[in-house]
Amino acid sequence: IVRLAGLLLTSLAAWYLGYFIAVSIPQKIISHAKLQDFGKKPVLRAPVPKRQKCDHWTPCPPGNFAYRILSGGGKEKMAKICFEDELCVIDSPDHSGEMMTFIRNAPEGTLLLMATHDDGSTLLKNDAKTLVEELGSKEIRNIKFRSSWVFIAAKGFKLPDNIQIEKINHSDQKMNRYNGWPAEIQIEGCIPRNLI
Any one cellular component term from GO for this entry (predicted)? Predict the structure, then answer.
């Protein structure tokens, strides 16, 4: 009987002590959800990266233009040129005449960004290739059937030496990413505004 009375007395004291603690601690400080999370390890999450102009990984320094030139790939992936977050998608197969007129009429201090889609070897006329060659292209005459090619040029000023101005990728049936087309290629970077 003494043991049973001690057990009852202990249980009653524990119940009153629990009731006293529950009443004296404000509900806003400890919630049921927080008590459940008490034993869990904290989950570290990386912050969402901030989007940069033309989808660069790092922002261009102040006083610079951001650009990205992406060649076309396959029938579905059109060539894209991004300059200062303005995107131009090239979808016409023959720009030879338009390109020559644009280059000739472009004023001094103009940046020219070019890319191929499908076949620049036959669709780009020799006069247009000569004009691009005069702008500094070393690969324009090397374009083969469905080669991917990108190029950036300056009219009336010199681009910095550390800027990649041209890239080419030839079609190879063993290595092509798309059926009959090589993978897209791109060049991107930052150009100081004070050059223009």
Answer: extracellular region
